[in-house]
Amino acid sequence: MKITILVLILAVSAEGTCFSGDDHERARRLKESGDILPLEEIIKKSGSEHPGRILEVELEEKENRLIYELEILDKKGVVWKLYFDARTGELLKRKEDK
After folding, report:
1. Dihedral sign (CA 43, 44, 45, 50)
2. Is the entire prediction scored with pTM above 0.85?
């Protein structure tokens, strides 16, 4: 199951957030119950792991594990995907999106 929870960057200095109805509610419930970390914490971790502009964030469930997938554009114009455990914030994987 895949939940898209953050979609676009609206301007260089401002990030925009776009949630679809049910996906937003599910993500909110999971955060409020303590099942996942707040997205803000994951975004902060991603900046220290791999600086760049966030293009998209998805919350996915893979093998009974919730994972934040962040798509990041670095200063060289390369797009990267970072995968974080949504419960612990651990960086699980980083790969160039080709």
Report:
1. positive
2. no
As a whole number, mean pLDDT of residues 46-50 equals 87
| One-letter identity of residue 68 | Y
CA distance 9 to 98: 20
Within 10 angstroms of residue 83's Cβ, the number of other Cβ atoms is 18
End-to-end CA distance of the chain: 23
Burial zone of 86 (CB within 10 Å; 0-12 exposed, 13-18 middle, 19+ buried)? buried
Contact 12, 1 (CB under 8 A): no
- Give the H or E element holding residue 31: helix 21-32
Backbone angles phi, psi at 9, to 5 degrees: -100, 125
